[in-house]
Every structure is written in structure tokens, then in C-alpha cells.
Please model this.
Amino acid sequence: MQRSIKRVLALAAATVITVSLAACSQGSSGSDDGESTGKLVVWDLLVGSDPNWKAVMDDVDAQFEEAHPGVEIDRVAQPADPTVIKQLMQAAAQSKSGPDLIMIWAWGDVLTLKPSLTPIDQYISDEERDSLNGWEGVTFDDQTYGVPIGLQGLGITYNKQLFEQAGLDPDSPPDSVDTLIDSCDALNAAGITPIGGGNKEGYLSGWTYSTLFAGSATADQAAALADYNTPLNEAPVSDAIGGVMDLVDAGCFSPDMPATPWYPDGFEDFQAGKTAMQFTIYSQFGYMQDPTIGQYLGFIPSLENTVTPEFLPAGAMNVWAVTDFSPRKKLAAELALFQEQAQFQQERLDKGGYFPNNKGVTFDDFLSLNPGVAPLIDLLQDGTPTFLPAHNMQDAKTNDIFQSQIELAMLGQTTIEDALQQAEDSRLDQRPILMGTE
Model:
């Protein structure tokens, strides 16, 4: 479980680095297909840390090379650290050499590195585009700057056994903030901490906010947030944060939650069966196989706050992006699309628990091991839309302010109004830089 938590931390670090690389890529062309043979250099953030991922990527590389005579794939393991990737990409862009294809995080890293990436719309067929979810994390100014990898989303995992002990119906979990608070009251009365977790690093601020944003915003409002046009101190953002504070004020968390580290301390009580619920990302579904609590777990995919949810808070786990200086742009784009086919995402789900964004993946084997995830699978198979979690659509500076200010509000050291105003001031400062309107 510790290895899984480390991998989750790397994947959940989807906050954004802000640096301008425009000067590094002037003069290069985004329309040149480039060479069709030779060595393709791929920077992969997971191949060096997860043997299950590596096994699938080895299969990808072998099949792609067989289908493209004269092509050799050099897959290079890189650390899942935004700062390191920024520095490496700066050096590569300046020298006009390095990777043809890079794995980065959706939305913010795509925007940050966009001057050194090339749009790949001309290489994506309608069928390929329709087969994948998560394009909102890679599309800006009507141009596509990468291929979304997998699905990372948010919801609430709950312990059915503890629900029963509190007199709650484990088969009718909360579906709104109001009913969640009612469940918290019953659990507290039974001497059970309702929701586990910690917010010392600020992660819980983002996860709770994103979960409740999906029940506070329409699909159109979510799209506006992706364009960085939504004020952070007005609805629907303020509605979502208001719902988070309602949970805090209702005693749904332990009193020391704001000062408790999220990794790994914030998970330990839930894993030990001492807390009834946990805000969870999809790559934590290893919980469902935990020998202590796995058989008792269920999953709540979304909650109503001020509106009936129109989408699930889930988007691209990562992104494959083609560099603007690659001498093999078309070939690199073909590899990016090739490795997100259903067959490879199926292998990644079955071997490593990586949740798919390819609509052709089946969940039969996964559900046999993780039956508590059935409510989410049902929604996805019914065609419920997804949209990138709200906290992922903030620049790094604003996200840091947002998280730290919400933590202070949880501690009663500032007001929500003041906290969100500071975040909005930062958004207004950073938007022209990030969106290229300055």
C-alpha cells in the first residue's frame, strides 16, 4: 500500500508550473510532419517506478516498432516532479534536442510548456478522438496539444460496516452535502469519526473542493473554469467551498484534520477501519482489495451541493505531448495515440489498476476484485460525462494560495471571503501570462 500511495502522490501532483518558454521555440514549425523513421525519444514519468506500467509500455514499444520498420523507441524514465520536468524541458527547448514525446500533467503543464509543444489535431482521426475522454485538459484556442492518458477522478470511499454500526443504510449512501452531514451526525453519535484525512499539505482542500464543484457547477460553468474565466471568489467556486466548510463546521472531520499530513497519516485511520469515509482518487481503488477493509467498501462518485451533478469530477491522469523541436512530429503523435488504444489501457487497468479513459475498455475483471466501485462504473458505462477536477485548473501560484488559505479558513484563522479573494487576486495576475494574452 505504501508503494501505491507514493504512486498516487506523483499522479495527484497535478498542479501547475509557470514558466515562459516562448523565446526557446521561436522559428520552429508546428506543421512539419518530420521523418518517418529513426529513433523516437519518449520521456515517461511512470516507466521507472512501476513495473506493471513498464510491462505494458514494453509491449507498446515492441508492437509499434514492428508496425513501423526503421523506427526505434527509446523510452527514458523521468522523475514525476514538475520542477524537474520544467528544468529539463527548458534545456531541451534551448538546444532544440531531446524528447520527441513527453508525459506531463493535464491543463496547467500543457499551458506552461505550450510554446515548446506542437498542435497535433491533423494527426488525430475522428474515431480516435471519439474513443477517448479528457480532451479538455489538452485543448486551448481550439488546438490540441496532446493525447490524454487514462482517467483520474474523485469521489468518496465509505466503509459499509461502520455505516451499519451507526444505524445507516450501507446500500443508500449520501448523495448530497445535506445527507452527508446527516450521516456525519449519526456516525459521530456512534463514536465513529465520519471522514478521515489530513490537510497539512493542502491536498484535501483541492480534493474536497473538486468533488463538490461537480455538484455546484453546470457543464458550461466547468468549461468556463477550464478557460480560466471563472472568478474564484464567486459562484460556483464559492458554492463548492461553502459546501466544504459546511462539512468542516458539522464536525465531519477530526478536529486535528487541518494539521494532519495527507500522506500517509491521513489515510491510516481509514485503512485501519477507524473512520467511515475518505475522499479518494481513482488510483486509490487498491483500498478495495485491502485485507482489513476491502470487503466492506463502497464508492460515492458524486454529490449534489447546489445543483444536480451533470458530470463526474474526472479527467486526464497525464498527457502525451509532442515537442515542437521533434524531427518526427507525425510519428510521435502516432505513438501517443497508439499507446492509448483500448488493448493497452485494458492491460494497464488489469495489471496496475490504472483507470482508463478509452471507452473500449471493459471492467469485468476489475469489478470482480473491486465490487465497491460498481456505482462509478455504471455511470461511466451509461455515458455520464467527465470533466477535469476543478483544482487541477489553477496555476501553481494560485493553487498554493488557494490551498493554504482554505486551510487557514478550516482553522478559523481567516474567512472564506478573504481566502477566496486572495486566490482570485492571484488568478487575475496569472491569467494573462498563462493564457498568452499579455
